[in-house]
Design a protein that fits this description.
The chain is mainly alpha-helical and 246 residues long. The chain is 80% helix and 0% strand.
Length: 246
């Protein structure tokens, strides 16, 4: 039975890895699965980041292989996101998680409506005017705080920020997203490890699944293009919104 549970962790990781690369919300599957293993909320939150880190490193490499290279801008945006993630990780135990989740849930509703109302935006991006691009650093700092705090659903916020603030299409957005998340997760994971909040066996098992899903996810994004990725994103956002308000 013990081994079957770890097999289930791997299977959920595959699905989560695929979702995380194309859209986000995979942690909404993995965190409950880690709880089934008997991990408390804090350890599950830390353990999940082992898989998140390795999954996004692999995904970033896969996008680069496919000539979707946004590494320079991603590295710059990763700086405020990482600072935010450190803050979010440090104050995780002090915030009202339920209230925070409701606020993000409303953001997801906006995102779902925007996906339907302005479909072409996701294929071309918008972007802030050049004289206002500095706002991106504050936006990514804020998203980083959320990612450091809870992680689940942070991919949607990065997608929204990259499309609206940076003007990237959905394919470049996903490539930048996985790079930024990989970089800030390093800092966040260190904090959880230092506080004894990581189960390495469960984390590495989940990571193998996430990596498998991430490889399939990047291939799907490149082969199917922005239109299909937008469909997957819409479904993931709707399901995640329901989860946040349940």
């Amino acid at each position: 039975m013990h081994y079957l549970l770890y097999l289930a962790v791997y299977g959920v990781g595959v699905i989560a890895g695929f979702m995380n690369v194309l859209a986000g919300g995979g942690s909404m599957l993995t965190l409950p699965m880690l709880a089934v293993l008997g991990l408390d909320v804090g350890v599950a939150n830390g353990t999940n980041r082992v898989a998140i880190l390795l999954q996004n490193i692999v995904a970033a490499q896969q996008f680069k292989k496919k000539k979707v290279n946004v590494i320079k801008r991603s590295l710059i945006l990763a700086i405020p996101a990482t600072l935010g993630a450190i803050v979010g990780s440090l104050i995780a135990v002090q915030m009202n998680e339920e209230l925070f989740k409701r606020i993000i849930g409303f953001f997801f509703i906006f995102l779902a409506i925007f996906l339907v109302w302005k479909p072409k935006v996701w294929e071309k991006g918008i972007g802030l005017p050049k004289n206002m691009r500095w706002l991106s650093y504050f936006i990514f700092f804020g998203v980083g705080i959320y990612g450091g705090f809870i992680q689940a659903g942070v991919g949607f916020l990065f997608i929204l920020s990259l499309v609206l603030a940076e003007g990237m299409d959905i394919i470049k957005t996903n490539a930048a997203k996985v790079t930024i998340i990989a970089l800030y997760t390093v800092a966040s994971l260190i904090i959880f490890v230092m506080n004894g909040k990581v189960n390495w066996i469960a984390g590495l098992t989940l990571a193998v699944g996430n990596i498998t899903g991430a490889v399939f996810g990047t291939r799907f994004a490149i082969l199917k293009g922005a239109k299909w990725v937008r469909y997957v994103l819409f479904i993931a956002v709707v399901l995640s919104t329901i989860k946040f308000f349940s």
